[in-house]
Amino acid sequence: MVCFIILFTFMLSACDMGGGQSSPAKSPTATTSASKSTPSTSATATPAGIRLGAQTCPSAVSVPTYWDAIIATQANINKVESVACGNLEGNTTLQALVLVRNQGTGSILDVYVYSNITNPKPKKDFQLMGLYKGDAKISNYNTVVTAEVDLDSSVNKNQPNAGVKQDLYREFKWSDSSATLVPVSFPGIYPVLTRYEAEAEQLNVNKGQNFWERDATQTVSHFADKLLNWQNAQVTITSGGGQTDVSAETTVKSPKIGGGIVKVSMSRLEGNANGGIWIVTAVATDGLALTAPNNQDRISSPVSVAGKGNAFEGVVGTVKVLNHLYDEVGSVQAKGGGNGANTPFSASVTYTKTFKGGTEEGLVALFTNSQADGSIAGAVIEKELLA
């Protein structure tokens, strides 16, 4: 089970989201290469000199106008909006996250990360261009997390510019082998898919909103309603899940007569037992399995999916690919070579993303259905990075 204690993987891997004229949106591009995220399951001490989250920048480089000359912004076209510093590259020196805002329709954001920041010629280690109504910040995990509008998503398509909203969140982490920040996935499945959203949601809960996210039973109940379409399902805590626990093992039973049982594993965000929100990290069902792709892989369409389960007339269930909004973007029947238990299957799933500017976080799920009423009877859900 994946845990979220913020002192995990980053530290290990470091040693291992013009005028008044309108202008068309730029296509989002990043100078990155893809990487799989492999969060650790045990805490480790922070290396000396490395702090987590945004830090105070050296005064000489903390003023946005200092960076305008370095990035070569142009008056009445774009300008540096903000500068933040942090240990983004796993060492004791500070790097700068510099955000450039463009004038015109979409308030396009360009994102830069520099090292050697007190040098008159700092080194540009990362850039991500063209985030429509974008935002970026340093996470509590020392990654860069970004937010932007997916103009073709189900919530924004055909909306006027004033009506679109941020709905696409990404995360970038330093890679020694690539010498830049690369896309990674947050281990969470529900109630949010990304670290940007999780940190924002924690702040909301701290203010008294969505207080159910601090309760393990209620979080599983909401999950079952959202992803399994099980209303008023019976939730049982089998391990952990208390006010001082940072992990929980649970089962949730379908409200249908003879309904199935799904196992749900959870962790507190950042291992915070003092009011941390619960995050679903694994969903499983006895007798059902996904063997490919691996959890938190980077996948592309068509994706080869393999697994096993109980087959009826050769059909194990349905494989679905869900995007960053939990929208289904591809599906296919999981057909085995026979009937009965432990029937293996393999399937090729073609999916179509609405976001064309890079990877996004999503899910690959295997669902089985009740022969009585067609409702979901079992599920295995894994987190993936969709290319």
How are strands sequenced across the largest beta sheet? Answer: 1-5-4-3-2
Element-level helix/strand string: HEHEEEEEEEEHHEEEEEEEEEEEE
- What is the residue-mean pLDDT, rounded to a whole number? 90
Distance between the termini: 25 Å
Amount of beta strand: 35-45%
Q: What is the molecular shape?
A: globular
Radius of gyration: 22 Å
Summarize the amount of helix as a percent range.
10-25%
Could you give a short description of this structure?
It contains four helices and 21 strands. With 387 residues, the chain is mainly β.
Description:
The chain has 387 residues and is mainly beta. The chain folds into three domains: 176 residues, no CATH class; 80 residues, no CATH class; 98 residues, Immunoglobulin-like, CATH 2.60.40. The chain is built from four helices and 21 strands. A hairpin with a 7-residue loop joins strand 11 and strand 12. The longest helix has 13 residues.
